[in-house]
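To whoever is on call:

I kicked off a structure prediction for a single chain this morning and the downstream step that reads the tokens threw a length-mismatch warning. I double-checked the sequence; it's 228 residues and nothing unusual in it as far as I can see. Pasting both halves so you can look.
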Amino acid sequence: MQTDPTRPTVYLFDIDGTLLSTGGAGRRAMEAAFAALTGNRDACAGFSFAGMTDRAIARAGFLAVGESATAARIDALIAAYLQSLQAEVGASDGYRVLPGVTQVVAHLRQRSGCAIGLGTGNVRPGATVKLQRGGLAEHFDFGGFGCDHEDRAELLRIGAERGAGRLGHARAHCRVVVIGDTVRDVRAALAIGAECIAVGTSGTALGELREAGAISVHADLTTAIGSF
């Protein structure tokens, strides 16, 4: 893909593993929600949440314990999850903003012609809770969220449209760059015709991210400013 950094650009950042780590608070809150609704705290024990949307996690957990994953049931699970998330994030000893994040955000905020948003599988209230503890929420006032669509590519498409609107352009006139940490992030970006800058901060091998199609791959965001 040929890139043109002079075009109006929408940047969509993933949260978990890209901007920050909650130290497992999200999983603990999801486990508490499943315990409350199904009596089984270990519904999600068999799979990683990496790159998944909250609603997809809920669906997979229900199916894992042999329960129907209706829209209403998923809504109830997400509501229970959000009830636990604030306390879990606040109490998490492992919470941290990841290296290079504040520098990249500051760098982009000084540039004209770009919109800085989120492309995250978190439902919007959950995203806000996670970002607020690290003082990041004020920097991301739009995006595509897990409550917009269960499919990651589709929520990115929605975020891209919103970002283009902020810039006063049609989506087709904008460059869209997704910043993520999993192969799912890369594939979803490519599915909507976007570029992906990938970081290995959650443990995915850099070669795997590069092979998936990321245009730029870094151990973390401290070395990625030049890619923006």
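Update from on-call: the warning came from a stale cache, not from the record. Cleared it. Sanity check on the structure: The first strand starts at residue 9 and ends at 13.
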